[in-house]
Backbone:
């Protein structure tokens, strides 16, 4: 049966101190859990000739013990919101104080209309089976018993077989050997979270008003713990969400800065290339005419000397002064050198335009080798020997790569970041060798390209950039692609290069960017991108028809 307001009534416990005034033992009959327990109490007192202390003193002692137990539960809640620890401590103390056979915390499964759940914590005597983690289904509980519990009412049953309980409910209780039970609701705010169950399994038991009040006080504190735990969980989730938002904001800010930086660089490179291209084309185009004119003049001069072999004295002096034979031989060579220089400038301009690729706002099939060569041309000055650093040997092992569909400017940016990092690593190794007065190692960068397939059978292009520098520690490898992480000295690196490269390869192109490194054995960065973006699983999963990704990250 369900009840609402407990009756304030004290409980009793035994003590070995003699009472100043004897009283009738019959006063204790109603306080024992059953008649057999009362008989055992009488036999025990007679055997040891124990007299009872005044009832008021016993009640005060019992009330004090229960207040201490309640205080312990409250302290546990204030100390920690670990529900498992709170439940276990509470179950143990309540069972001992009430001398019950089992005390357990039952939790309802969400979305089951309070018909299903399990015991999440308990304290039970050894001679009774455990109900812990046992899944319970009571198809009549949600409609018949849940509403009163949700209103904060409790159920006190002295004998489940004599109470007017629904047969399906009796069946569930008997499964756990329950004969008498006291059940109080555990609320999480306005929601019925679960039940605090006190089970008497050995025999029927009359639940006293003060026992019911004590259990209700315990349940109220547990409900506070549940609500606080829920608020803490919400706060933690909000904190995690806030941290994720902050991280996204930092990445977005970093991407905007890098986008503006690369966009400005691309526009600058494209502008310079355009301005240089016009005069270079003019020079290169006229060099052919100049060469032809020079050839004609030299032929005419040779013919003139044949017809007039004896020049005048003044003309002979001038021919000797300008060393006409040498001039006739060297002039064509100079024109050929100028033509080679102009052609070299044209190649540099073409490489700059290929690197910036501002005219390509959509994916396009490109030759990755051209992008690598363009990047190497820009970094050429860092590969040469200098007063501080030795020459870097460049080894190219290019495979037969097909045209790769990608955002060329972004992939070139990846090559630039990886090659710059490789050069930095070799310079750091040089500096370390100089500091230790040892012979600097032979500096080497190896670039290898191959075609292959990923684990899904998608054709991919593979670019490996390897250096023989000092390598990267295992700890640092785990953080390489995090924004703003760098192993370089202060002022040397921003920690953005690898993070941006990872986003370009993985997020923009559905590829992979990995690092293989061992301290003292150099590092290898491996770029893998699908050859045909339309056939890749990345394109099918993440791009809508007609969607265009941004050129700059």
Residues:
């Amino acid at each position: 049966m369900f009840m609402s307001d407990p009756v304030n009534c004290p409980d009793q416990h035994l003590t070995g101190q003699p009472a100043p005034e004897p009283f009738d033992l019959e006063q204790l009959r109603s306080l024992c859990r059953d008649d057999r327990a009362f008989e055992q109490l009488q036999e025990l007192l007679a055997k040891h000739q124990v007299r009872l202390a005044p009832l008021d003193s016993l009640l005060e002692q019992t009330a004090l013990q229960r207040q201490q137990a309640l205080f312990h539960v409250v302290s546990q809640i204030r100390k920690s919101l670990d529900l498992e620890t709170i439940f276990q401590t509470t179950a143990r103390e309540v069972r001992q104080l009430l001398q019950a056979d089992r005390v357990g915390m039952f939790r309802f499964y969400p979305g089951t209309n309070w018909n299903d759940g399990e015991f999440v914590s308990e304290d039970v005597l050894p001679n009774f089976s455990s109900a812990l983690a046992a899944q319970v289904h009571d198809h009549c509980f949600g409609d018949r018993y849940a509403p009163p519990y949700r209103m904060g009412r409790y159920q006190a049953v002295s004998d489940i077989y004599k109470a007017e309980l629904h047969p399906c409910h009796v069946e569930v209780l008997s499964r756990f050997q329950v004969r008498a039970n006291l059940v109080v609701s555990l609320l999480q705010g306005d929601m019925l979270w679960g039940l605090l169950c006190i089970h008497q399994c050995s025999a029927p038991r009359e639940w006293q008003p003060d026992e019911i009040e004590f259990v209700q006080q315990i349940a109220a504190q547990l409900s506070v713990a549940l609500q606080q735990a829920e608020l803490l969980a919400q706060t933690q989730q909000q904190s995690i969400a806030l941290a994720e938002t902050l991280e996204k904001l930092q990445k977005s800010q970093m991407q905007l800065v890098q986008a503006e930086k690369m966009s400005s660089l691309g526009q600058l490179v494209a502008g310079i290339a355009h301005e240089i291209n016009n005069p270079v084309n003019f020079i290169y185009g006229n060099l052919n005419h100049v060469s032809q004119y020079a050839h004609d003049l030299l032929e005419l001069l040779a013919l003139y000397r044949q017809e007039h072999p004896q020049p005048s004295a003044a003309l002979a002096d001038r021919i000797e002064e300008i060393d006409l034979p040498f001039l006739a031989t060297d002039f064509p060579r100079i024109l050929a050198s100028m033509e080679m220089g102009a052609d070299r400038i044209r190649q540099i301009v073409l490489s700059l335009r290929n690197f910036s690729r501002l005219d390509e706002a959509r994916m396009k099939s490109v030759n990755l080798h051209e992008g690598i060569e363009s990047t190497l041309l820009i970094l050429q000055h860092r590969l040469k020997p200098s007063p501080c650093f030795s020459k870097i040997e460049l080894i190219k092992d290019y495979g037969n790569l097909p045209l790769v569909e990608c955002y060329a400017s972004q992939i070139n940016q990846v090559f630039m970041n990886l090659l710059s990092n490789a050069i930095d690593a070799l310079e750091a190794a040089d500096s370390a060798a100089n500091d230790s007065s040892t012979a600097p190692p032979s500096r080497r960068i190896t670039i290898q390209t191959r075609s292959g397939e990923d684990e899904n059978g998608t054709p991919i292009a593979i670019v490996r950039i390897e250096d023989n520098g000092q390598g990267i520690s295992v700890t640092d490898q785990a953080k390489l692609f995090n924004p703003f992480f760098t192993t370089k000295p202060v002022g040397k690196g921003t920690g953005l290069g690898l993070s941006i490269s990872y986003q370009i390869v993985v997020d923009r192109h559905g590829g992979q960017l990995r690092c293989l490194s061992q301290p003292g054995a150099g590092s290898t960065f491996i770029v893998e991108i699908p050859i045909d973006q339309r056939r890749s699983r990345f394109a099918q999963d993440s791009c809508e028809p007609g969607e265009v990704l941004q050129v700059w990250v």
